[in-house]
Structures are given as structure tokens and as C-alpha cells.
Amino acid sequence: MNRHDVIIIGLGAMGSAALYQLAKRGVRVLGIDRFAPPHEQGSSHGDTRITRLAIGEGAHYTPLVKRSHDIWRQIERETGADLLTQCGELIISSKSRKSSVHVEGFFQNTVDAAHTHGVVHELLEASQIRTRYPQFNIRDDEFGYFEAEAGFVRPEACIDAQLSLAKTLGAELRTCETVLGFEPNANGVTVKTDQGVYQADRLIVAAGAWLPKLLGGDFDKLLKIYRQVLSWFAIDGDVAAYEPERFPVFIWELPDSLQAIYGFPAIDGGLKVATEQYAATTSPELVDRSVSMHEIDHMHRNYVAPFLKGVTSICVKAKACLYTVTPDAGFILDTLPSSERVIVASCCSGHGFKHSAAIGEVLADKAENRTASLDLSPFRLARFSA
Ligand SMILES: Cc1cc2nc3c(=O)[nH]c(=O)nc-3n(C[C@H](O)[C@H](O)[C@H](O)COP(=O)(O)OP(=O)(O)OC[C@H]3O[C@@H](n4cnc5c(N)ncnc54)[C@H](O)[C@@H]3O)c2cc1C
Description:
By secondary structure, the chain is an alpha+beta fold. It has two domains: 3-45 and 155-220 and 328-384, FAD/NAD(P)-binding domain; 86-150 and 224-325, D-Amino Acid Oxidase, Chain A, domain 2, CATH 3.30.9.10. The chain is 25% helix and 29% strand. The protein contains nine helices and 19 strands. The chain has helices at residues 13-24, 62-79, 106-117, 126-132, 155-168, 211-215, 219-222, 293-304, 356-367, and strands spanning 3-9, 29-32, 49-51, 84-85, 89-94, 122-125, 142-147, 151-153, 172-174, 179-185, 188-193, 197-205, 224-235, 249-252, 261-263, 270-275, 311-325, 332-336, 339-346. Strand 15 (261-263) and strand 16 form a beta hairpin. The chain is globular, with a radius of gyration of 21 Å. Flavin-adenine dinucleotide binds at residues 9-15, 32-35, 37, 41-44, 46, 49-50, 178-179, 206-208, 210, 214, 228, 230, 321-323, 347-348, 350-354. Flavin-adenine dinucleotide binds next to helix 1, strand 3, strand 13 and strand 17.
């Protein structure tokens, strides 16, 4: 009775996309999540995620994000949901920068990726950035990359829409149910939860920050979990100057800081801005999900006030969220060496959401044993054992 073609553990960004794609193909699929997604315990909350077509983390990501944009636009047409806002993206850097985003050479890689994939963009000098976006405090030696088709996606809405569509198409969802373990064998995979036992031909494990514990072995050495903080600050006066019609998403490789900052136009009254930290690892069990006043003050004093004009220190909202990071800041999309039946999706390292809709499609390809529509060779597990 509990036999399915495919079981998916984790219905966040990656799992909900895979569930939708498999259900659309008529596959008998079961999705299990320990919470009721979208939720605030993992990596996919906080209203917005940057999306950009030229990817500084590697030109091989561009086909994934392009396909994701197509899928989200299609879901928007089907459901009426508001998922993708293309308000443009500005990356600011300088020769004197001390920080780089995710990988060394992020800015130049982005420009190179734009050329490789024909992404329309502009390279801006400091004076041009000041004229177009006076909201930023730009130094004379800074320069920018502007991409008009970039912008942001709404993670909770994407997950919600894909789960609803999957359900309508016949997928079975079991939420607030925790997978305790799984066992591949010659006939399939057995999945044990705190409420039952299920079987399938294939298993997709998309458990985000819980992956190291669930997969065991050396995965705790491969996947490091970091707590990140998101803060929303109120605008002083002219809120319209920070709304998506007049303000882009931005990534700023700061001149005097070891960390970059990134941010979003003000939606729902607050401008979201964040930096990244890789100093201390954590786990989903131990992480402090509250954000202290000290953290908020530190953020505003060091990363907001010097760079953005007219953004007050009034914090309207703050959230903690989890990064799951691989040694090369790339993704893992592969079967386990011990079993072809188990597919692992660890697609975070702080930049996975924009690719998630397309990742759902390639996960569905893999689960159906079809050749994936996009090249997955950069995401093999074996690259870490070389
Ligand atoms: C602060 C922050 C900012 C980010 N900014 C960007 C950005 O601007 N652009 C971008 O593209 N990406 C960004 N990312 C990355 C992106 O959000 C992640 O790549 C993506 O959310 C990862 O999705 P996931 O499906 O792997 O994990 P999740 O969405 O966390 O899903 C994992 C799911 O597995 C479930 N689960 C775990 N264990 C079990 C179990 N034992 N049984 C059942 N269910 C289980 C969990 O409940 C959860 O729902 C950011 C991430 C963070 C944290």
C-alpha cells in the first residue's frame, strides 16, 4: 500500500520543485517533510532571493537559472501567484575590494558568464552608478555590472505554488512527519519515518541543512552549516526611491570589509539587507533562530549606514537562516556511490534558490532514469574525492 515510484525527503526549495515536476509527469510520488513547508526552520524563508542570469559562481549555472525563470513564469500564468520580479541587479566592486562573493573573482566571472551566454548587461563607472542610483554611497574607484533581467524570487510563494500544483496533480504529501532513516536494497528503497514505513523505486534526498545527519558517513565533513542573519530596515521619507520600480537587487564587494553585502528593494515597508558569515558552523538542532539587538545594531552601523542613504536603524524584521556549504561553494546533484537508487540534492552554498525550479526538473529526470535535460557533470560527488 505504501509503495511509490519515487519518494522525496524534504519539501523545501529543491524537494517541492522535484515533487511538482514528477507529479506533472504522472509519476506516483510521495513527498515527506518534518515541518509544513514553506516554513522558517531551514534555508528557504525571508521573503526574497536574488536571481541573476550571469552567475559569478560559474558560467555552467546559467542554463539552470534561465530554465527556472521560464518555469516560474509558467507557474505564475497557471496559478496567478507573484513569483519573479525582474527589477535589475547591480553588482558593485573595486580594485581595492577585500571581499569576494562565494568564489574568488566573482565580479569578473559574472562579466565572463554574461559574454558566454549572451546575457544583456552594462558595465558602469562610479559616476554612472551615482546618476542612476543615488541611493548608494559610491566611492570614486568603484564600478558596477548591471543586468536588467535579474531581480528576485519569492521563496515561500514558489514552494507553496509547487506543492499546491503537485497535490492537484496527484502527488501525496506527508508533512510534520520526520524521516528517521532509509535503506536501499535490490528491489527499491525503504524509508522509515516517525509515523510509518514507505517503499519506492527511487529516493530523492533534499533535506537541506539536515543532510549531513540523514546521510551519515563523511557528509558532515563535506557539508558545513552556517547561520546567516537577514535584517529589514525602514526607509526614511521617500520609500518609492527604494521600491522595485526604482531600485535593483544589489551585491556589493565592499572595499574595507572581508564580507560583501547584498540587498533587495523595499517590499512590504522594509529594505532587506544581509552579509554572510563563515566563521562559526552550527546545525539545525543547535542554531539560535532568534536575532539579537546587538546583531541588528552591528549590521546597521557597519553595513547599512555607510553605504545606503536614507535607510534608518529601525529594524522592522530580522530572521536567522541556514546555509549548507560545500568545499567549492558548488552544488551536489548526484546518486550515492553506495546506491543508484538514492539521489542527493544539496544545492545551497548561499546561491541555490534561483536554480531550484530547474533543479526540480533534472531531479525528476534522474529519478526516472532519463538523461537529464541539462549538464549535471559539474555537480558530481566524485569531484571531492579527487
Ligand atoms: C540567508 C539566506 C540567503 C540566501 N540568498 C539567496 C539568494 O539571494 N539567491 C539564491 O539563489 N539563493 C539564496 N540562498 C540559498 C537558497 O535559499 C538555498 O539554496 C535553498 O533554499 C536550499 O533549499 P533546500 O531545498 O536545499 O533546503 P530547504 O528549503 O531548507 O528544504 C529542506 C527541507 O527538508 C526538510 N527535512 C529535513 N530533514 C528532514 C527529515 N529527516 N524528514 C523530513 N523532512 C526533512 C526540512 O524540513 C526542509 O523543509 C540563500 C539562503 C539563505 C539561508
